[in-house]
Amino acid sequence: MNQENPGWGAEAEQIAANFLIAHGYTVRERNWRPRNSHLEVDIITQEDNVMVFVEVKARKDDSVDPADAVDS
Q1: Residues paired with 50 in a beta bridge
Q2: Are the C-beta atoms of residues 2 and 9 closer than 8 Å to each other?
C-alpha cells in the first residue's frame, strides 16, 4: 500500500474489481487471508469454470514498475 496515501491501495483494488466485473468476472472474495497467516489475496474472481487470483499493485509514480514490487 502506498505509504503517502494509505487509501490509495484500497481504491486501486476497487478499480481492479470494477474492471473485472465489467469484463464478465464474478468477484468471490476480497482481501482473503488463509487462517493463521500474514499472506493475503487481494481479489479472487471467477469466469465460467476458471478461478483467478489477483494481486493488485498500484503506483501513482509512473517511473516505478509495479511488477518490481512482486517477489516469490
Answers
A1: 47
A2: yes
